[in-house]
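Recall the central idea of this unit: under ordinary conditions, the amino acid sequence of a chain determines the structure it adopts. In this exercise we apply that idea directly, starting from the sequence alone.
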Amino acid sequence: MLRLLKNGKLARVVDVVDLKKRGSWGHFHELGHNRQRGWWTFAGTGEVTCNLFSLHAGEVLCGIEPWENAWLKGQLAGAKKYLIEGADFSKWKSSPGIALVSYAQIQKEFGWEPFTAVFKEYEILPVNQRPKDNQAKMDEWVLRLSTATQQDLRPFYRSWGMPLSESLLANETLNKYTTWVPEPL
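Accordingly, the structure predicted from this sequence is:
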């Protein structure tokens, strides 16, 4: 049975006034899982990329800028420490908060448009052209997002410890773009 009242108040999921004011990270997170696709969700990002949709919903539905989101703000100290101590991708993959900060840095600089464009590209990509293994998924993500931003994001992702293939590192198209360096956390 669904309980819509608790202590005489509407449950958060149906309290539109409260949702618009504070958002609902947990609900948005779970809805984000419905938007994820296996061909761009590589190992360690199953609990990360769904949160891109949490940040987006928070902004679009509630007016909460991604960098003002309480959950994301709570991850910044750990992300700074991670980068200072030397990026270890196994730690990145096991810490959704740290990983989300890296995605949020790109969103902060370029907005949602590159993500939207890349997600659209993946949706129409024929099944036989979708990346199959983990390395291919990472490389394809970096290639597509670099193209969407018209910036070379390889150094950025390497600074977070992401292992990129030799073929992606030698990609001539990406070599033509300016290397993007985000502002420090």
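Residues 17-179 form a domain with the Neutral Protease; domain 2 fold (CATH 1.10.390.30).
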